[in-house]
Q: What sequence folds into this?
């Protein structure tokens, strides 16, 4: 009998040796005359277990991990294909508490299916949403997305349905759907996992968006640092076109939607929506002034829906299960679930999809298992390089856009980076300014010059030169950047800087000095 | 250091001809050229400008704006070390110091034997498993100093 064995092809698994493990499994099986079918699935998002080898059984999939190349022979010796025990056996994968405690609505297929197999996608409720959307009027699709309460997952949290309504209402011969997949924030990898591990979900979401606003062309702008995402998306797009799910006359509906991947070139600021449009147009990725809104004059001057990967790939689920189903998850005005990314110094780093309302502490300790180094977690940066550093006293903040804003923080893209007590927060504040100086597009002065001056001021603070005056200057500079910058790059860089200063003043000099500066 | 090595001009011109009708063609063209040549030779800028009917200044401006595009040849292998926050929290700075010492060159530099070019990258999307590095097209996660040494040795042909 053929035994089905799964070894992930997600890039984290590959970076930890999954290809070598997979090759060893094929070699050993052949040498031992065991008939196997090897499936290269996505990752379950439990990265401390990668490469995670799974075996299909009548009871479900049994996991073993992490399994390096040299451990494969031992697995076969233990009879792992026929229920044999092994020190690295994890039991039924689905029963691992880290997975079992999640609410995987959107990442429901991730880690289970072969990402580039359309057959697998269809067998796991794929394209149910599109089939429903085809039978609906465009305005009804927009209404469904509005009713779901979905807000932009890229960080800005703008209601997706409202944005779509503006584009639907705009009259133009050509409209576009532009997917922002320039996931440059450190500590975030959920976009990457969707593109590598379930690319059809994003393609389906964009196709539905096209039907909803009457756009016939779509672009996915993917960072050059994600070659595996680009490859898997392209492979999936070819398959979707061939099967009539993309291109002209989608599923016989007479509707058209063409989709292509555009490779970025390593400019962080292109994650800002208007800079991204400039880049797709083949120019320097510099920020545009708003208005006009991209919804009215976006890509090539035409009405354009710009959404993040996670927002767009939530759409198939909203259409297939209904707005009401999605809306019933979450808290306050933050509806649905958020795929959160546990990163940095954590024992169990990975992807956790939960409804809004889960606290930072639950994520760090119940899921993350505390720091990997075993030292106390001192600071957590939430929402990427432009997100605030949160101290232990704020760990009970629930994930909710409004609750985070109330403590001068931001949910951002749902990534959290944990630091233990060896971190020097003055250095982190300097790094935030340095990063902004490196990545600023240069269009507006507060961001371009402010960040360079910010590095200089931080250097003086660190060198203990006139600390009270320099701290006063730093606050003043941050104020100018927040209020005077054209986009989030300049007006959010002060978030990490000021949060470091306000929550960890001891790293910026003694308390007495700071009291005098205030 | 010479900044220009011989390259296949016909192949580059074919890329321009093939791509120039694409909307927003400049980035795809630059990606293809760098893919074939290994960098963007400054001498090809006029041909790109002419092909797309834009100024040389615009082409130059785009090449120099993006971190990914380079105007000089690099070593045989490009070693990129992620130095963003999530990898910082997992010790990438000490790995970066170690890499500089082992390779005997600074970031943006190339080793004397032209074997390795060392670069910084801000995020490879391996944030739960840092420090992460990339050598050419291959990713490596949880890279200790020992693992780094063995990866470099393997590229040098030493087992």
A:
């Amino acid at each position: 009998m053929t035994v089905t064995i799964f070894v992930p092809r997600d890039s984290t698994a590959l970076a930890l040796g999954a290809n070598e493990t997979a090759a060893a499994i094929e070699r050993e099986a052949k040498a031992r005359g065991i008939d196997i079918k090897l499936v290269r699935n996505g990752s379950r998002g439990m990265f401390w277990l990668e490469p995670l080898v799974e075996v299909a059984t009548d009871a479900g999939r049994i996991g073993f991990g992490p399994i390096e190349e040299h451990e494969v022979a031992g697995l076969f010796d233990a009879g792992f294909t026929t229920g044999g025990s092994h020190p690295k056996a994890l039991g039924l994968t689905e029963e691992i508490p880290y997975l079992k405690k999640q609410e995987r609505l959107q990442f429901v297929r991730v880690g289970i299916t072969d990402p580039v197999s359309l057959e697998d996608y269809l067998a796991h409720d794929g394209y149910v949403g599109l089939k429903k959307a085809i039978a609906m009027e465009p305005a009804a699709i927009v209404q469904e997305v509005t009713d779901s309460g979905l807000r932009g997952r890229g960080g800005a949290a703008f209601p997706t349905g409202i944005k779509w309504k503006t584009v639907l209402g705009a009259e133009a011969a050509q409209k576009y759907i532009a997917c922002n997949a320039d996931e440059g924030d450190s500590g975030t990898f959920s976009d990457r996992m969707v593109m590598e591990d379930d690319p059809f979900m994003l393609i389906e979401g964009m196709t539905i968006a096209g039907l909803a606003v009457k756009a016939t062309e779509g672009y996915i702008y993917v960072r050059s640092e994600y070659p595996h995402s680009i490859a898997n998306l392209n492979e999936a797009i070819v398959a979707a076109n061939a099967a009539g799910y993309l291109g002209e006359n989608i599923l016989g509906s007479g509707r058209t939607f063409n989709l292509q991947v555009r490779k970025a070139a390593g400019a962080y600021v292109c994650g800002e929506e208007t800079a991204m449009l400039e880049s797709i147009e083949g120019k320097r990725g510099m920020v545009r002034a708003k208005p006009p809104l991209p919804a009215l004059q976006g890509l090539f001057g035409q009405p354009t829906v710009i959404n993040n990967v996670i927002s767009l790939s939530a759409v198939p689920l909203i259409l297939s299960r209904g707005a009401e189903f999605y809306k019933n998850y979450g808290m306050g005005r933050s509806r649905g679930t958020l795929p959160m990314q546990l990163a940095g110094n954590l024992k169990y780093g990975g992807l956790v999809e939960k409804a809004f309302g889960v606290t930072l502490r639950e994520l760090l300790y119940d899921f993350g298992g505390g720091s990997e180094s075993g030292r106390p977690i001192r600071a957590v940066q939430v929402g990427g390089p432009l997100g605030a550093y949160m101290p232990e006293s704020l760990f009970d903040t629930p994930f909710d856009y409004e609750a985070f804003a109330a403590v001068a923080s931001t949910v951002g893209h749902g990534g959290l980076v944990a630091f233990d007590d060896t971190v020097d927060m003055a250095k982190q504040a300097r790094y935030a300014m340095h990063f902004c100086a490196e990545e600023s597009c240069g269009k507006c002065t507060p961001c371009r010059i402010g960040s360079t001056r910010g590095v200089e001021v931080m250097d003086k603070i660190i060198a203990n030169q006139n600390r009270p005056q320099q701290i006063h200057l730093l606050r003043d500079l941050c104020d100018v950047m927040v209020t005077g910058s054209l986009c989030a790059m300049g007006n959010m860089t002060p978030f990490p800087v000021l949060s470091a200063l306000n929550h960890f003043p001891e790293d910026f000099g003694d308390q007495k000095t700071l009291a005098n500066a205030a | 250091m010479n900044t220009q090595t011989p390259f296949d001009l016909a192949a580059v011109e074919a890329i321009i001809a093939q791509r120039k009708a694409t909307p927003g063609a400049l980035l795809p063209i630059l990606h293809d050229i760098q893919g074939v040549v290994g960098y963007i030779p400054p001498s090809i800028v006029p041909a790109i400008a002419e092909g797309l009917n834009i100024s040389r200044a615009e082409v130059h401006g785009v090449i120099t704006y993006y971190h990914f595009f380079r105007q000089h040849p690099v070593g045989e292998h490009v070693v990129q070390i992620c130095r963003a926050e999530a990898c910082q929290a997992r010790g990438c700075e000490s790995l970066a110091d170690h890499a500089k010492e082992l390779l005997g060159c600074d970031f943006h530099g190339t080793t004397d034997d032209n074997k390795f070019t060392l670069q910084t990258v801000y995020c490879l999307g391996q944030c739960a498993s840092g420090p992460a590095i990339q050598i050419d097209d291959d990713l490596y996660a949880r890279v200790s100093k020992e693992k780094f040494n063995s990866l470099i040795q393997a590229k040098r042909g030493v087992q």
In short: Residues 115 and 156 of chain B are 8 Å apart (CA to CA). The helical segments of chain B are 9-19, 26-37, 45-52, 56-65, 85-88, 92-103, 145-155. The two ends of chain B are 31 Å apart (CA to CA).
